Amino acid sequence: MNPPDDDTDLDDPPPLFTMASDIYAFAMTILEILSGQAPFSKKKNDSAVIFAVLAGKRPDITPYLQTENLKLRDLVQRCWSQNLTERPSAKTICEILEPGSEDQGSWWFRSFLGYLRSFIS
User: Fold this and answer.
1) 28-34 long-range contacts, Cβ below 8 Å, gap at least 24?
2) Is 100 helix (H, G, I), strand (E, B) or coil?
3) Total of domains in the chain
4) Is 5 a domain residue?
5) Each residue of 25-59: pLDDT tens digit?
């Protein structure tokens, strides 16, 4: 049997960092900015966080997202979907947060847009 033409090792695990993991991290960054605390800050160690995430648990949504900015809350929840194919692309996030949307007045949206555009240009 001949080896594959490319250098792919079929036993290699999938990459740890992907565009989907970056989108998840984006959602966690939004939560951290709005709450002033790291997501899962009440967990005592990294292992507890890992097990919680693998079990499908997510951090608490901040009161601001629960009551004041439902559009952003929905985006955060899409970004951390357990099903990777349900997470929006960086381009989709930029379209949602584009100036002219309901949330254009927030300075940090504009900062995040610049950051996200660096991934899609």
Assistant:
1) 28/59, 28/80, 30/72, 30/76, 30/112, 31/59, 31/61, 31/62, 31/65, 31/76, 33/108, 34/62, 34/64, 34/65
2) coil
3) 1
4) no
5) 999 998 888 888 888 988 889 999 989 988 989 99
pLDDT digit string (tens) for 57-84? Answer: 999 888 877 877 778 888 999 999 999 9
10 Å Cβ neighbour count for 16? Answer: 6
Sign of the dihedral through C-alpha 107, 109, 111, 114: negative
Instruction: Please name the residues in contact with 1: beta carbons below 8 A apart, sequence gap of 6 or more.
Output: none
pTM of model > 0.90? no
Whether residue 9 is contained in a domain is answered as no
